[in-house]
Amino acid sequence: MIFRKVFTCLIIIVLAAEVWSHVEIEAEDYFFPLEPVINYCKMADQCQHDFVPICGQDSLGLTRMFNDNCDLYEFNCDYKKQYQHVKSDTCKYEMEAAPEIFEQE
Asked: Is residue 4 part of a domain?
């Protein structure tokens, strides 16, 4: 009986060690604990600029306007930020500061 429990514990420990050895966690790859970060540098390299202005917001609620999605990806890559595309209404103060960018022709 004891042998069975010890054997079971050893198997669990070996499996846990095997799984843990395949987990590669680096500080810059995680924004919050166990929340994977999008690889914005790779996305920026593959992105095609369409120059449609978008609003971006980070986890602290800070907002800013970007020229397009590619600009957001490049900014996140260059400055190690986590801005995400949100509704344009979120950046209403930025739009008031630079209305010529958002005028339709």
From this structure: no
Run of H or E including 90 = none
Pair 94, 65: CB distance under 8 Å = yes
74's tokens = 């490049």
- 0.85 exceeded by the pTM? no
pLDDT in tens, the chain (105 residues): 888 888 888 888 877 766 655 544 444 444 455 555 678 899 999 999 999 999 999 988 899 999 999 999 999 999 999 999 999 888 887 766 555 555 544
Q: What single DSSP character describes residue 31?
A: E
What's the alpha-carbon Rg for the chain, to the nearest Å?
22
Residue 19 and residue 47: Cα distance in Å, rounded? 34
Can you list the alpha helix ranges (DSSP code H) found in 47-83? 69-79
Structural domains counted in the chain: 1
The CATH number of the domain holding residue 58 is 3.30.60.30
Q: Is residue 22 part of a domain?
A: no
